[in-house]
Write a structure and sequence with these properties.
Layout: E1 20-28, E2 31-36, E3 40-45, E4 50-51, E5 57-62, E6 65-70, H1 72-76, H2 82-86, E7 90-95, E8 101-106, E9 111-116, E10 120-122, E11 136-144, E12 147-154
Parallel strand pairs: 2-12, 6-8
Antiparallel strand pairs: 1-2, 1-9, 3-7, 4-5, 5-6, 7-8, 10-11, 11-12
Domain CheW-like: 20-159
InterPro entries: CheW-like_dom_sf (IPR036061), CheW-lke_dom (IPR002545)
Protein name: CheW protein
Length: 159
C-alpha cells in the first residue's frame, strides 16, 4: 500500500475557480514524482524486465508489444545495482508524445491526487543538471504543517 505523506483529503474547501491537475504520485529515491493522469495508460504488476546496455533502460512485453522501461531509480542512484533496481512491484505505463508506450517501475502503489495549478511551477533550466531535477519539468509545492512537500512532475522521459 501507498504509505506516504498523502492522507485522504476532502477538496470541498477548494472553490470551483481553482484549476486542479489530477496526477499519479509515487516515491522514488526519497523524492516524490508525479505524472498527469491524462498521460497514464495503465498501472500493472511489473512483469520481468530485460536490461539493455544502458542500465537505466530495459524492455518488457505488454499485450503483445515491446515496451521500453525507464528505470528512474537507476537514473537517480546510478551506484545501485541495475538488476536490483529493475525488480519492482508495479509498472506505470504511460505514453510518449508520439503515442509509444513506456513503463516506469515502482516499489509501492501510486496515489491519485489533485494538485492546485497555482502550486505548480516550472523548473529553471539551470536545475536540469541536478538529480532529481534533471528528469522533471515542473515542481508542485504543497504546504504542510512542518514545512512544504515538493512533488516533481515528469515530462516526457522518452522522446
Amino acid at each position: 500500500m501507498f504509505n506516504t505523506h498523502f492522507p485522504p483529503q476532502r477538496l470541498s474547501h477548494i472553490t470551483s475557480d481553482v484549476k486542479l491537475l489530477k496526477v499519479l504520485v509515487f516515491e522514488m529515491a526519497n523524492h516524490f514524482f508525479a505524472l498527469p493522469i491524462s498521460t497514464i495508460f495503465k498501472v500493472i504488476n511489473c512483469p520481468p524486465v530485460t536490461n539493455t546496455a544502458d542500465s537505466s533502460l530495459g524492455i518488457t512485453d505488454f499485450e503483445g508489444q515491446t515496451v521500453t522501461v525507464v528505470n528512474l531509480a537507476q537514473k537517480l542512484s546510478p551506484q545501485n545495482s541495475a538488476t536490483e533496481r529493475m525488480q519492482k512491484r508495479f509498472l506505470i505505463l504511460s505514453q510518449t508524445r508520439q503515442g509509444e508506450l513506456y513503463g516506469i517501475p515502482i516499489d509501492n502503489s501510486p496515489a491519485l491526487i489533485e494538485l492546485p495549478m497555482d502550486n505548480i511551477r516550472p523548473l529553471p533550466l539551470s536545475a536540469s543538471q541536478v538529480n532529481p531535477l534533471n528528469i522533471a519539468t515542473h515542481v508542485a509545492i504543497l504546504p504542510k504543517s512542518e514545512g512544504s512537500l515538493k512533488i516533481f512532475l515528469l515530462g516526457h522521459i522518452v522522446n
